[in-house]
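Ticket #4471: structure output looks truncated?

Reporter: J.K.
Steps to reproduce: submitted the chain below (323 residues) through the standard prediction queue, then opened the result file.
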Amino acid sequence: MPHFDMPLDELRRYRPEVTEPEDFDAFWEKTLSAAREHDLDARFVPVDAHLSTVDVFDVTFAGFGGHPVKGWLILPAGTTEPLPTVVEYIGYGGGRGLPHERLLWSAAGFAHFVMDTRGQGSGGSPGDTPDPVGSGPAYPGYMTRGIEDPHEYYYRRVFTDGVRAIEATRSHPLVDSSRVAAVGGSQGGGITLAVGGLVPDLAAIAADVPFLCDFPRATTLTDRPPYREIALYMKAKRGVEERVFRTLSYFDGVHFAARGTAPALFSAALEDMTCPPSTVFAAHNAYTGAERSMEVYSFNDHEGGGPYQQSVQLRWLPEHLKG
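Returned output as attached by the reporter:
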């Protein structure tokens, strides 16, 4: 796949005119306030994962609408004092998976919380959290569920779950609530950006090849799913473009980035047809935190940096979590 997007020097300057709703902050304040009317009810049940180096807890907490959301909390074995913690969000289609698949951060000495993604987990790693909210007609996938009304849109529920996951993590006595970072790749990167814009006191965020950014450009630049789901929905339902893009404006990573304050590490791949690099740079360039950095992988597609980017994170995150 050749480079198809802007040259790198243009990407570093790219700032799209993505229309922000006037009530963006009020929308999210009301959404989170409504979620917090439900008891968080975070439960951590020890499980035997047949792993000698970690202690594993099966987690359930109340997300959007009080709906139960699952997760894993994985601690270095024998932990007795609160630890800095990494909260991880999962890529599109995947669920929390199995504990032995998620050992990186505990091996590095951190507590590690993995949030399940509601309604997902049958097209990748397995999930355990249903999405009990119905939807009108939608293209197969998750991108168009409730897409003509921001109050009904699928990612309103997911982003709220992401914020509540931070709150659930901080409620555990072996988590240092002042040293919590959010991380994720692709959809997980998009959720990370949203949480970073909605939770003001995170220690750091790391968003790899993030999805859900600069929707107007993404939906017209790539014909790959998941963005293609949106275009195919509008192809079938002519005349809904204005309503669709108005809804998406409440969920655009560019707007959340403009509210982020924690130190932030991004990555982009210049041959990425799933999350085009310009959409990733749009969020990076809008980021308002005092510290931001971007790792660029010039000849990679959506796999991005893969284990190389994990190596960067293993050097970068301790600077912000272990100080």
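Triage note (M.O.): checked the attachment and the full token line is present. The longest strand covers residues 175-185.
Status: closed, working as intended.
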